[in-house]
Amino acid sequence: QVQLVESGGGLVQPGGSLRLSCAASGRIMPSINVMGWYRQAPGKQRELVATFGSLGSTNYADSVKGRFTISRDNAKNTVFLQMNSLKPEDTAVYYCKFQGSGVYWGQGTQVTVSS
Predict the structure, then answer these.
(1) What are phi and psi of 5, to 5 degrees?
(2) Phi/psi at 69 (nearest 5 deg)?
(3) For residue 26, is pLDDT > 80?
(4) How confident is the model at residue 30, as a pLDDT?
């Protein structure tokens, strides 16, 4: 079992920045895994934002390329999402995901971009 604890959401004005963190604990096996962020806006399906594999590969949604940066601390099993130049359309609940021997989700953190 893997537990994910997210933090860093909140309310920010358009053009602002936020940094999300997600710490994984428990049976982090295998050592080769993928951690990432997904988001779900009201009335929409959950969508990929960015992922970071334990071997260093990254993947971003086109809508966030150039604005969001995902990073990872393998020693601490933590993944971060630096979000810059935020737009109202980035408003959503952001979920952390861990995929190794199984798939685990965090509880979600609300990000609201509004003036």
Answers:
(1) -120, 120
(2) -135, 125
(3) yes
(4) 61
